[in-house]
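Hi R.,

Here's the chain you asked about this morning:
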Amino acid sequence: MNGKFPRPLEIEIPENLKDWEEMYPPHYIFSKDRESWENRQFWFLDKIHAPDPMYPFDLIFHEAWQIALSQYTTRVFCIPPAQGVAQRIAGCYFYICAIEPPSEETIARKAELFQKRAFHVFQNYKRENYYEKWEKNFRALGEEIKNIEVPDLPTFEPEERVLPVPRGYYSSYDLMEAYNRIIDGIFKAWQYHFQYLNLSYLAYLTFADTVRKLFPSISESVIGKMVAGAYVVMFRPEEELAKLARLAISLGGNVRDILTSDRTPEEKLEELSNFPEGREWIHAFEEARDPWFYVSVGSGWFHYEGSWINTLEVPFSYIKNYIERIEKGERVERDLETIDSEREKLVREYMDLIKNEEDRKTFEDSYNICRDIYDYAENHLFWVEHWFHTIVFEKMREFGRLFTRYGMLENEDDIFLFNRFEIPMIIEDLVTSWALGENIPARSEYWKRKAEKRKDILEKARAWNPPPALGTVPEEIAEPFTVMLWGITSEKVSEWIKGVTYTAEDVTEIKGFAASGGVVEGRARVIRFLDEITELEEGEILVCPNTNPSWAPVFTRIKAAVTDIGGLTSHAAIVSREYGLPSVTGTGIATQVIKTGDIIRVDGDQGTVVILERSG
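And here is the predicted structure, written out as tokens:
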């Protein structure tokens, strides 16, 4: 398998992306001084977190998770064989690698600490209400960032800041401090993000490994069903939409007719405000809006995706669809009662097959730990990647509006074209010209030219299809989180090589993880970019790089889901199990070899996708 992918410095980046490196911190670029180490690693395109070219400011969340994920594995909970996950950017695309295990001596030292620390958390997670305490702390941090004031630069400082006692520091400092507090908050948020996440994944891995040893022929989709049916926060936005749809129907014709009309959300809200039933619906809508509409339209990682609070067309279109489907007698919510009963029945059946008491206890203990802590994997997702990121993006737009007001940038969203180290330079340039007095020019044209150049580079990067991987493929990919979340294994990489060495038409079958059981056939809909999701039609099979949490309402319309990237705990796997849909994740090449209109068979029990008929 070695030699099938280019080494990092051998990658052929299109000439029209010249100077792309200037957008990112220098330590994110593959370099000669680290060439030997970088060549030894296996770098893969992270389509879960960044399927699109990386905007400079948006990289900050990845900077933060690289540190946080890695330190919890290596320095905090000390998971013995695991190390961190490193990141690089090539041609505006985001690559990561799971670093090889540490020395045997370090593994032994970590094992001792891991036993003490990790199992203390497992034993006390539910009893000591760790999750409730986590959410309280995290929401307090989010509110703190939300309440940061981005000050203007007054013509003269107000009197109360000068007399009777001069304040001592003024608007120039306030502006710089506000930005620094936001950046500090982002890094703190991502430290919180991983407080229990690695352990929740590890609990699943431990349980799955226990089950596999006891039942060698068991399928991965069956193991997944044993932990399905979680009452998790990430499904709450979708549940709120379903409640609003049912309320609209119960309130009568006028409310229902307005919400299913083709008017804009703003027009609908205006009309609803004119009569009592409409105002009742608006009240319920406002109650749900904060925090449950702080959910990204996409993954939560990119500023341009928008969130429900600022792209109301999305939730209102879901509400319209839900009303129409409820009136047809369809169920739009997850059937948690059925999922729970099926899960409990499945677990009992397998426990009854275990005759050895020690094995039974091992199974039961690992299952209970997994069920206790695993909901964190989806709960944190809403609060961090959606609620918190929405707050950050909206706060950064306040800086963008300030910069446009003073002529530093053309548009407020141009601020995201600068990385977190560059924005302080723009702030300093602005406050310096303000402090010097009247008619002192800042380097506004310089920043505007740089923004325009970067827009052009990012647009051209979208047209480039970068290699799925770089560097040396190891004999075995065993890092647990890489396997679980991203779905990267040695076997899966061999599937990727098909996409590199064969044309799409030559490939008729691809393999991935058996993420959610069942077999269906149907028409494929390939979704590569966020704005294509509206093209998805009822009864199609979704094929995409990865799914986004805000797409949950879509799962009630599709037959199955197939992804390029993602393991057994990826979003597509979890949601497909919750809705009883077949799913194959981590195929590596599905979006390359399947075309919209192809008739495909998805086997979620075997982890295979067969192309039955090409669309022509």
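One quick note: The chain has a mean pLDDT of 90.

Cheers,
M.
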